[in-house]
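[agent] plan:
  1. take the single chain provided in the ticket
  2. run structure prediction with default settings
  3. attach structure tokens to the ticket
  4. add a short note for the reviewer (M.T.)
[agent] executing step 1
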Amino acid sequence: MPARDNGHEEPVIRDKRKIDPETGEVREPSGEQSEAPAEQTPTVTAHDGELAAQLAERTADLQRLQAEYTNYRRRVERDRVAVREQAVAGALTELLPVLDDIGRARDHGELTGGFAKVAESLESALTKLGLSPYGQKGDPFDPTIHEALMHSYSPDVTEPTAVEVFQPGYRMGERVLRPARVAVAEPEDAPPASNDDEAN
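[agent] step 2 finished; step 3 output follows
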């Protein structure tokens, strides 16, 4: 029997070592320790479900905001490009009469000396901005890019054709800034059959 001093029991010492010092084997946890986590499991699971629902809601909100911002950026970039193209097209359109004068001077042999170099520099700069002339004699007539100033019939063509170019057209990319002004010839109609041919 343990000795008692002044009516007090000796302290009880519990061995909580996980490895048995005598056998060296791992001890199984006591019933109290194994049951404690099991009692907390339902609370943790309910809390985790609530957190998962909140996380899913916040994630959906974030994805929606990100999609709206991406669409906004694309719209702003598209508008910026459209405004720039409109401004460049307006400036190029104003310079077309100058190019017409340069073309007439070149046709008459008056484009010489320093003026020729200035004209070449101007044409080069406008080309870099996307301006390109079109409209050559012999091109098939296209009413979307040609303006017919004269009309005739010719046995030398098999389809409506630009047989003369009075003023070249200009486009910037796919946008037509000014249609080419041309004379158009169509194939001659076949001669009507005579009465003698019908009789035969």
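[agent] step 4 note for reviewer: DSSP finds three helices and six strands in the chain.
[agent] ticket updated
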